[in-house]
Amino acid sequence: MTEEEEAWDDVSSEGDRAPGLSASLGAACLACVLGCGGRTMPGASADAGNDARASAHSSSDSGGPLEAGRFDSGSNSTSAIDATSSSSSNTTSGKSTSSNSVTSSSSSSTASGVDAGTDSSSKSPPPSCVPGGPGMTNCGLGGSGTESCCTSLLVTGGTFYRTYDVVYYPYSGWPPLAPDGGPTDEADPATVSDFRLDKYLVTVGRFRQFVNTVYPDGGAAAADAGLAWVPDAGSGQHAHLNGGKGLANSGPGGGYETGWVASDDVNIAPTNSNLSLDPGEGVTWTPAVGNQENLPIDWVNWYEAYAFCIWDGGFLPSEAEWEYAAAGGSQQREFPWGSTDPDTQQMPSQYAIYDCDYSTDAACWPAQTNLAPVGTAYLGAGRWGQLDLEGEANEWCLDWFQLFYVDPCSDCAYLAASSQRVGRGGNFDDAVDDLVVSLRAEGPPTNRSQNGGFRCARSP
């Protein structure tokens, strides 16, 4: 077992995915955060005056009052969106990667509980999908189709609670709901502006285009003269926010996001060996194009995920942005699709890829046998149409991990350096109660794991 792999395993077994916490819930809950297995509780506010709020449906978003109840996406979920990026040309470290024009086809069905995302722009698609082919232009409902795998959907901003549906210590395995099925224990409000969030997890096929840019000629150029491409220092900011300064830092020192730091260039190393650290655990990457191009890329560290999104014309989502999209904003959904427990359904994998249920093989490993082509779980669409927000793979976020949320938060991220970066969403071997949206995860930014993937966010 490698050092990177062991680091993630330690986090996974020592409490990276346990249930939610608010300042008023007491020391017993905190003990669970520090010692229980599973995901961490959505951190309590640093301001102890913000007590947990038990009333459901008390928040509102920019679209008006919160709808009663929490909705399920239904069988025709997702909206017709063309793939776009925040720019059609990405200039990085003296090297320019220009996106050619590619038109993707898209489906047009919209279901109850899914808001129709809109993308009326004529921007070219991101470079990761320009070549076309498996894992780039054949995504769709059920895991295959003719939609661009770079499809990015508009998430309409608003205000929501980052802490809700708290599971109390001792860990009961399931959050209590309000009598009307709504959320409970709402705390730690955050406001998020409009942004785009990619519909699909980054596929092997898309990531291959990035590897070909970083390591042209099979890596020979990089071995002889260093990386052929690195992000520009300061790139990867949410430049559409705060007058171009990006996300506000909610951590000590304040200020705004700095973007890519040049000293992190050394952490970009998506080699064949790094992307295949433990074949016994399972890997989705293959050195040559194969039959796994539509699976989510795994074994990618935080730095490579961030660099990929910068190269692709976007950035990593903040933790608040990711959770806002998965929660359906002020609808505070238990799962991205609503409150339906997929364990009660005849085909749970239509909602999420979890609990090693996708494969007919009884074993959980290797991972690639239990991962599905992105978008397979078509009933699991979130409010704005994103798929696989829970299950399939954990997703890197921009923030450093902090146990307690800091209030208030308006277009914020926790940017004060610590030892762990935030991850969100369950993965293919998590149980159903680990798919609750408000649960959190964390891992060292150098960590590589068969459970880890990511998706990019973009300017609206």
Keywords:
460 residues, little secondary structure, paralog of FGE (formylglycine-generating enzyme), 4-stranded mixed sheet, 3-stranded antiparallel sheet, 15 strands, 12% strand, disordered N terminus
Structural notes for this entry:
With 460 residues, the chain is largely without helices or strands. It is 12% helix and 12% strand. The chain has six helices and 15 strands. The strands form six sheets. Strands 13-12-10-14 form a four-stranded mixed beta sheet. A three-stranded antiparallel beta sheet has the order 5-8-15, covered by helices on one side. A two-stranded antiparallel sheet has the order 1-2. The longest helix is centred in the N-terminal third of the chain and has 11 residues, at 3-13. The chain is globular.
Gist of the model:
With about 450 residues, this protein is low in regular secondary structure. The protein is built from six helices and 15 strands. A four-stranded mixed sheet has the order 13-12-10-14. Strands 5-8-15 form a three-stranded antiparallel sheet, with helices on one face. A two-stranded antiparallel ribbon has the order 1-2.
